[in-house]
Amino acid sequence: MSKLDEFLAGERLDDVALFLTHAFLDSEGKIANYGEDVDDGVVLVVDGDKGRKLFASGTGMDAMAFAREAMDTDGEIARDLGGGEAPDGGDVQFVFAFAEAQNEEVGGLYAEGDVIHAYAYSSEGTAFSDRWVVGDE
Fold this sequence. Notes:
DUF5807; alpha+beta
């Protein structure tokens, strides 16, 4: 099982996942050496602190500030983190994601299981987010 598969299964709660398209990497380049090639780009799953630093290095943005901005706009992010549908019609350039453990006291999605929080950025400049319970399609 790959690190990405483990992450998507909720088994790497201390890690973050980053996906960047080949087109974005062509212009930014720095993060490709750390990741695993996938169909439309590169994905890496690393320790949370290291991942936030790599995200900043590869995108020029602070990961948590980006996530806060993205929370204001809903969109659809692929369950494998390799893209999605941006609300502005642009192409997904990158995704930053983390998983949060099930927490029945909080309720809602969190009572149903571990939750993936995913934040994406489109080619049109829109930051957006999606979240889902691990295992839901």
